[in-house]
Amino acid sequence: MSRLVVVSNRVADPRKAAAGGLAVALGDALHTTGGLWFGWSGHVVEGGAAGEGELHLQQAGGVKLATVDLSAEDHAGYYLGYSNGVLWPVFHYRLDLARFDADYIGAYRRVNQLFARKLMTLLKPDDIIWVHDYHLIPLAAELRARGARQRIGFFLHIPLPPQQIMTAIPQHEWLMRAMFAYDLLGFQGEADLQNFSRYVQAEAGAEDLGDNRFRAFNSTVKAGAFPIGIDVDEFAELTHAREAGDMYERMREEYSRRKILLGVERLDYSKGLPQRLRTFKALLKKYPENLGSATLVQIASPSREDMGTYSDLRQEMESLCGAINGDFGELDWMPVRYIHRNVARKRLPGLYRVARVALVTPLRDGMNLVAKEFIAAQDPADPGVLVLSRFAGAAERLEGALLVNPYDTDGSADTIQQALQMQLPERQARHQRLLAQIRTQDVHWWRHSFLQALAEAPVNA
Predict the structure, then answer these.
(1) Which terminal Cβ of the chain has fewer Cβ within 10 Å, N or C?
(2) What is the b/e burial string over 282-320, where b = at least 16 CB atoms within 10 angstroms of the residue's CB?
(3) Residue numbers of the domain that contains 270
(4) Is the residue at 101 inside a domain?
(5) Confidence class of residue 19 from pLDDT cuts 50, 70 and 90?
(6) Is 415 a member of any domain?
(7) Is residue 427 part of a domain?
(8) Confidence at 286, pLDDT banded by 50, 70, 90
(9) Residues 235 and 346 sit within 8 Å (Cβ to Cβ)
(10) In a 3-state reduction of DSSP, which class is residue 6?
């Protein structure tokens, strides 16, 4: 059986409880197959030479963890600069926030070359290599240049924008060429797959060979939509564990006379948090019966706070929360409970379960696993309602959610009111459909379907 080699920007010990969707999914894949997980160590070496970094190896059960340090210069250009200052905003349709500094792409290429050099020393001839996310788009091309002949697949966890937006990236042609070094490209949804098809045909003159196979640059790549899921049974078990149970009981007691609306995400401009607060304010104005009754609990965990855009967002959030509480709050009721820190993953199911409505309303998102976690945590006898942005990848398949346009403040407020007033039989029927959908395409399906497609794809060695 071929060994699985996972490559991602960050590496997590699969023996420990993981915090994010990517870490949960990859930990599950490696726990099942064993193998190697390669990526950045998270350490920044001040004064280190650009393009160089020490390799660290450790064994974690059946998985070998291999990590590389980055110099301060590489971290600034590759991670903060190109990955999160160019690709992240552009791929989330925010050209206005992109910082097109010519030095960034040099650092991005340099770190991908560093990863390729270090990884080549660890590879076996029959390995299957699975590369993840926007930080590492050119990795396969760098591996091929060094003689790698293994099957290499790539999965993009964030959206892929339309051609007109992609072409705003300086040297986007180089990124597009790099994609054709892979054997399989995986996207979260059909919209991303269509954007890729139109982009490569219009910009590279790629030939459509049918069955989502495209030929350009003397290479053929297969593309597909593989929506990532969660481990539904594992998350349901967490719901009944002590930590989640304690959270549920405490929140239920404290908010016994309230209806909780819940938001859980990183503090990121793609998540539509200011728009959500303005929508909640509109809800209280249009439907005053919610005064003293509805409480928005918004968890926004810290994210990239060393970047100016994020500190501006934090200030805006704090200002909006303060204004809503000041305008509508009473001595015994505050409309918004805003928490700017991480909440342990083991406690989240209890929060999900106590919520009457989950607000998952990003401006743009690749998938959004919070929506699926909320569904898995619900009591089927008395489930909450999922209000979901139509611009989240999850909206393609989660029939039963109430879809909203997060830019439409009044329309979204009307939909939230519908969720708050929804009667039990309809809530149960919607939850049944949603639960069946996330079970059908869970994390095991995601892993199996992608790796099976990679095993069947022609090799671009």
Answers:
(1) N
(2) bbbeebeebebebbbbbbbbebbeebeebeebbeebeeb
(3) 232-440
(4) yes
(5) very low
(6) yes
(7) yes
(8) very high
(9) no
(10) strand
Q: 51 pLDDT band (50/70/90 cuts)? A: confident
Pairing of strands 63-71, 35-45: parallel
pLDDT at 20 over 70: no
Residues 169 and 262 in one domain: no
CA angle centred on 130, ends 348 and 376, rounded to 5°: 25
The torsion angles phi and psi of 268, rounded to 5 degrees, stand at -145, 145
**Statement: residue 320 has pLDDT above 60:** yes
Phi/psi of residue 376, nearest 5 degrees = -65, -25
CA angle 339, 340, 346 (to 5 degrees): 70
Residues 114 and 172 in one domain: yes
pTM above 0.90, yes or no: yes
365 is catalytic: yes
The active-site residue out of 69, 127, 365, 442 is 365
**How far, in Å, are 12, 98, 255, 429 from residue 87 at the CA level?**
23, 8, 41, 40
CATH of the domain at 215: 3.40.50.2000
The DSSP code sequence of 279-290 is HHHHHHHH-GGG
Whether 150 and 193 map to the same domain: the answer is yes
**Cβ within 8 Å of residue 21, ≥6 positions away:** 157, 228, 230, 367, 369
Locate 155 and state its tokens. Answer: 């999965």
My answer on whether 203 and 345 are in the same domain is: no
Element (H, E) at 262: strand 259-266
Per-residue pLDDT for 310 more than 70?
A: yes
3-state secondary structure 365-395: ECCCHHHHHHHHHCCCCCCCEEEEECCEHHH
- For the chain, the residue count is 461
Tell me the per-residue pLDDT of 144-156, one tens digit each, with 9 for 90 and over.
999 999 999 999 9
- β-strand pairing of 219-225 with 213-216: antiparallel
Domain count, the chain: 2
Catalytic member of 75, 132, 135, 157: 157
178 three-state secondary structure? helix
Tokens of 106: 């040099």
